[in-house]
Please model this.
Amino acid sequence: MRVMAGATTLGDLAGAIAIRSQESAIVAELKAGSEDAYAWLIGQFHQPIYSLVYRIVSDPADAADTTQEVFLKVFRGMKHFHGQSSLKTWIYRIAVHEASNRRRWWYRHKARETSMEPSLNDPNPGVSALEEALVDQADSPFENVVHEEIRSHVEQELRNVPEPYRTTVILRDLEEMSYEEIAEITDVSLGTVKSRLTRGRDALRQRLTAYVREVGPRIGLQAPEEEDSPPTDSRVSTRGGDAMTCAQAKSLFSPYLDGAVTGTQMHAINRHLQSCAWCRREYISLQQTQQLLAKIGSRKPPRDLALKLRVAVSQEAAHSRRPLLQNFFVRLENALNAFMVPATAGLATAVVIFILLMGFLAPLQADNPDVPLMLYTAPQLQQSAFGTALDSISDDSLVIEAYVDSNGRVQDYRILSNPTEAKTLLPQVKNMLIFTTFRPATSMGRPTSGKAVLSFSKISVRG
Model:
């Protein structure tokens, strides 16, 4: 049930004091950077803020991005919040400001683009649109489609209401905020709020009158009668001798709906409506427009929006807690990286040129295409006659060092180990070395002499 705007009771005052006390504790936690406090803030406000932003920017993706920017600005500006207004109105003021900026940017840059999001104006709304319809889940599929059709049409007509009247209507009729809160959020006087709300509701009423006449019986609204011409006499006599013009009565219809009129004005309007059929028809039409607007409810945010907001705020908090010295080192590292990129590129270029020169000065042999281009490579075994002799020699039997010439032949050798069977194995080793060939060692790509260490259990090469 809507609270009458401007009405204050002792119970409301006591509740406001308790809320203020609780809010002060929450603000203190938020200023201290409490993750639990920000989790509560996001859980409490992300849905209404998204709904408000969406009504202004009219694009789901832009609404989600703008909502994230709103909460980041709340985090950054929390230290400057001193409680001159309530936390709620402060957040809503940021949201309205960001959404208005986003909308102006959209008109300048993206007005001709087509969104890939499901269109709310699609005459055949898809399953995703039906899932987001704010209707009773117990309704039949037909009723769901009817509700979705009504919501799409009303939202389209609401988007056609010019600013700043549309935002005022959204804050009052969809977000159910008081006149005082709207004045704080939009930074205007109470009189301006009432004037904007009256003009915005009347503009929406004019757009929806024909539609209410068409679908009213299906949704339980009485179809308005065909409009006659307004009375030529601007003053209608009422009982009790008082008189109120139709223009005066019409200007008070909007605050009269909200109960934001004085007792004298309320009685005067009641008497005028009883005696003036045209004004009564206008007031009923305005009532039905407000009821139809209430049916669209709040816009549901994406399911993962709350999680994305918490991640974004956590990242912002981690960035803000980074020590000043660490920031200095990061900037220094970035500066050095910018300097080192050309230096590294120059070094890499020099290495490539050196390798190309080595390849030109010392071309590889045609029969050894796989010789690596290095300054020096050791001899490598190619062919051996060790096959029959290895079977009869133990693991620690004999190790020799062979001197290999540039043709890959063994020119000399010396014994590195001293096994007991060395004398008996020596004749066999000599015969084997005669028939052993190596790939010669290379220096700067050219064959040269080198040394190879041989064992009868394995062969290893050492430069």
Observations:
- The mean pLDDT is 74.
